[in-house]
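Hi, here's the filled form for the chain we discussed.

Project: internal
Contact: R.S.
Residues: 163
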Amino acid sequence: MEHIIEKLVQDFETGGITRRQLIQSLALAITAAAATSTADAATAGDPAFKAVAVNHISYRVADYAKTRDFYVDLLGMKVRHDNGKECALVFGPNDTVLIPRNYPTGTPVVDHIGYTIAHFDREKVEAELKRRGLNPKADGDNSFHVHDPNGFDVQICSKTMKP
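And the returned structure, exactly as it came back:
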């Protein structure tokens, strides 16, 4: 970069280019250098998104009401909604949600975790997930489901997405 600027100044001083051409060329060189620097930084390990909170944990259980009562009575979680098959239990400063859902067969299991990310832009998030080959599945306007390398369901959520 220094070599390019030196050459441009030399061309200007010898009358090879006008002042306007010098300024335009310097602006173009600086813009190109900045774009290259940004691209290098992005490929050098910068994350695509910044997780800022656990949005929710989805939990398959044999009896959601028993699970609800356990967490309310023991840990003071608050019931946000309850539809008779599942409920949302809210806790913590970021209003993290635990969602016990009736799943009468099989072993109780956490079936997915939703992560709130900073600066959620639906189109940009979807494009990045597709670019990475993650086959995103939209869940409304505020989140996408993808699978991590182990096949675990991960939900990428906006701050406004509340189960």
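Let me know if anything looks off before we file it.
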